[in-house]
TrEMBL record:
Name recorded for this polypeptide: Glycoside hydrolase family 97 protein
Residue span, Glycosyl-hydrolase 97 C-terminal oligomerisation domain: 569-665
Annotated Glycosyl-hydrolase 97 catalytic domain residues: 324-471
UniProt cofactor(s): Ca(2+)
Molecular function via GO: carbohydrate binding; hydrolase activity, acting on glycosyl bonds
Chain ranges of the Glycosyl-hydrolase 97 N-terminal domain: 35-301
Keyword annotations of the record: Calcium, Glycosidase, Hydrolase
Keyword Hydrolase: yes
Quaternary context: Monomer.
InterPro entries linked to this entry: Aldolase_TIM (IPR013785), GH (IPR017853), GH-type_carb-bd (IPR014718), GH97_C (IPR029483), GH97_catalytic (IPR019563), GH97_N (IPR029486), Glyco_hydro_b (IPR013780), Glycosyl_hydrolase_97 (IPR052720)
Record carries keyword Methyltransferase: no
Length: 667
């Protein structure tokens, strides 16, 4: 019997029971328990009988209908085979996590109620309920290693919400589980999403006046990531890449390993372990989603004993504009002179790093330096300017040359690398992330992943893994019109809930809806200059890569000085106003200073925001807003300096595809 058919039967048996869960805890031998969030608004009901299911309500209204959980093992059977009366334990937790790399806030309240079911068979099932979401995970306690054939993670809804989802586009020479996790969001009613639609998480569900829901995961280790598929009904089902049986190398400029044959199971792993958290974020107001850090809270604590060497920063990045400098006395390109120019630019405008992106070496051999590059000269020049260097690597090459390459980076004083073109999240790919992060930690090298799946809490476990891609970002402006303002206004509400993202903002050529064109070398954004600036505040990434052209930036020193002053980590974050896919106003504090960034879709709008949350009374304000002609010339902006007070109202005017940024320095 298929999981879908089993679930349909389960649903028909459980619908009547859903309304009785809060009243009855014993029925026909079943174990039925209910647990509430600390504020009492969210209730999670668990029913253990011949199967395990759970349901969630918010303010008394059904949010998630009874949804089945199971884990199917090899020789050990499945979780639901032995659901004898479990031992039930509960606890309440009220703690504070101190983040060594605070993307949203330094001090993170970790407050929840928990219920665990320990079966005499070697399984435990734990649920946690927070004020802003709920989660569950399975644990096993087998002495020997186990094979996981499949996992049943069902999410059934009492109505037919709209689903906001990115769908895998199958590549011609690879199976459906190969993807760079960079697709635009589609919006459909849930019953129109079918089994053939493979969605990568996070996804968002919106139904009428009900709270918005995000489905994702946390604490992913030695296990494949969770995709979701539709069923043609109001149900989503987890889907997982089977374990690689055979792999092949797709050789080329960006060579990578792909799976040519898969096993009939999804993981082979330790018998005693915890599996990933299945996470549901709950947001009665849209602004609560970009503030939500539940995925971080659920992840395993840091495995870096002393994080003092981890130094978040701003960096340049030259790949998107293909080193296309102008007003310089040398031929620009991948060469020593160009990188020295980038170092000078970084020093002038407050950037701490220059990234040497793809091309500094043979992609397939990190020790075969491009002839036009003199690494010793670049290293010495960067050191003289107190600018750090970061290096791009191809994942397949880094995997082969890991220790000697990291040793060489240490000798050069390089303390940050990017590794790229993984494009998988099966168990072997996930293991590569952990292996690479641990190796980099041993060498005190920070890193980010490109061609990558979502962070899923990895940044808590390995705080030196500062960010990762898993987003359709600036580079898409080279060849497509997909990075629209509407797309940009979905990212904080969906993708960013899973952790920091490397969008690579800062393009200094900008286009309107009528003037934007995908174009290489002189790459422009779809949206205004000020929207690109606001991304440095609205989008979270402890290392921000500026993708604009330094030669253009040199001509606009006031603008670049403001951009260069924006921190990349924050003491606290507040989303002052937001509407999914329409606009967002985010306020972040660092020390005594505040930065407020706002972004807008293609509808011009004016917002009025109170500043009464400010602790100091008086501030020196620097404002960058869309210029009066930004609706036709998207690079038009206006810089204003003025005094402001906490009693003032802040008026935010944004052009179509526009933005706004204010820096408030306490007097």
């Amino acid at each position: 019997m298929s999981h879908t058919h089993q679930f349909t039967i389960l649903l028909s048996q459980r619908v009547l029971l859903f309304g009785l869960l809060a009243l009855s805890f014993v029925a026909h031998g079943a174990t039925i328990r209910e647990i509430s969030s600390p504020d009492g608004k969210t209730k999670l009901s668990v029913n253990i009988d011949k199967t395990v299911s759970y349901a969630i309500s918010y303010d008394g209204a059904p949010l998630l209908a009874p949804s089945q959980i199971d884990l199917v093992l090899g020789n050990e059977g499945k979780l639901s085979d032995r659901l004898n009366k479990p031992k039930v334990t509960t606890r309440s937790v009220n703690e504070v996590i101190v983040s060594p790399v605070p993307e949203k806030r330094k001090h993170i309240p970790d407050v929840y109620n928990e219920i665990s079911f320990r079966f005499s068979a070697p399984f435990r099932l734990t649920f946690r309920v927070y004020n802003d979401g709920a989660a569950y995970r399975i644990e096993t306690f087998f002495k020997d290693s186990i094979i996981v054939k499949n996992e049943l993670a069902a999410f059934n809804f009492p109505d037919n919400p709209h689903l906001y989802f990115p769908e895998v586009v199958r590549r011609g020479n690879q199976d459906q589980f190969h993807t760079s996790f960079e697709e635009p969001y589609q919006i459909k009613t849930l019953d129109s999403v079918l089994a053939k639609n493979l969605c990568f998480t996070p996804v968002l569900l919106a139904a009428g006046n009900s709270p918005k829901i995000i489905i994702t995961e946390s604490d992913l280790e030695s296990y494949p990531g969770m995709f979701l598929t539709g069923t043609g009904k109001s149900t989503l089902l987890g889907a997982f890449a089977p374990y690689p049986k055979a792999e092949k190398v797709l050789a080329g400029e960006y060579s990578q390993v792909y799976v040519s044959e898969r096993e009939d199971f999804i993981a082979k792993t330790k018998g005693t372990r915890a599996f990933p958290w299945r996470v549901i974020l709950i947001a009665p107001e849209d602004r609560m989603l970009p503030e939500n850090d539940l995925v971080y809270r659920l992840a395993s604590p840091s495995r870096v004993p002393d994080p003092s060497w981890i130094t978040p920063r701003k960096s340049t990045e030259e790949w998107i504009i293909t080193e296309n400098l102008f007003n310089v006395p040398f031929k620009s390109g991948i060469n020593t002179e160009t990188y020295k120019y980038y170092i000078d630019f970084a020093k002038q405008f407050g950037f701490e790093q220059v990234l040497m992106d793809a091309g500094w070496s043979d992609n397939n051999d990190l020790f075969k330096i491009t002839p036009s590059i003199n690494m010793e000269e670049i290293v010495a020049y960067a050191k003289s300017k107190q600018i750090k260097l970061g290096m791009w690597t191809l994942a397949m090459t880094l995997d082969k040359q890991m220790e000697p390459a990291l040793d060489q980076f240490n000798k050069w004083g390089v303390d940050f690398i990017m590794t790229d073109f993984i494009d998988r999240d099966d168990q072997k790919a996930v293991d590569f992330y952990h292996k690479t992060a641990q190796a980099c930690a041993n060498h005190k090298i920070m890193l980010m992943f490109h061609g990558a799946f979502k962070p899923a809490g990895f940044n808590r476990t390995y705080p030196h893994a500062l960010t990762r891609e898993a987003v359709l970002g600036s580079e898409y402006n080279i060849w497509s019109d997909k990075a629209t303002p509407d797309h940009n206004l979905l990212l904080p509400f969906i993708r960013m809930t899973s952790g920091p993202m490397d969008y690579e903002p800062g393009l200094l050529s900008n286009g309107t809806k009528s003037s934007f064109r995908p174009i290489a070398e002189n790459v422009m954004s779809f949206g205004t200059r000020t929207q690109q600036l606001a991304m440095f505040v609205v989008y979270e990434s402890p290392i921000q890569l500026f993708s604009g052209n330094p030669s253009q930036g040199m001509m606009e020193p006031d603008f670049m000085s403001l951009l260069g002053s924006i921190p990349t980590t924050w003491d606290t974050t507040m989303v002052l106003d937001a509407k999914l896919s329409d606009y967002i106003v985010t306020a972040r504090k660092k020390g005594n200073d505040w930065f407020i960034g706002a972004m807008n879709d293609l509808t011009p709008r004016t917002l009025n925001v109170s500043l009464d949350f400010l602790k100091q009374h008086k501030y020196d304000a620097t404002i960058c807003e869309d210029g009066i002609n930004a609706d036709r010339y998207a690079a038009d902006y206006k810089l204003i300096s003025q005094a402001m007070a906490s009693t003032d109202k802040l008026q935010i005017k944004m052009a179509p595809g526009g933005g706004f940024l204010i820096r408030l320095k306490a007097k």
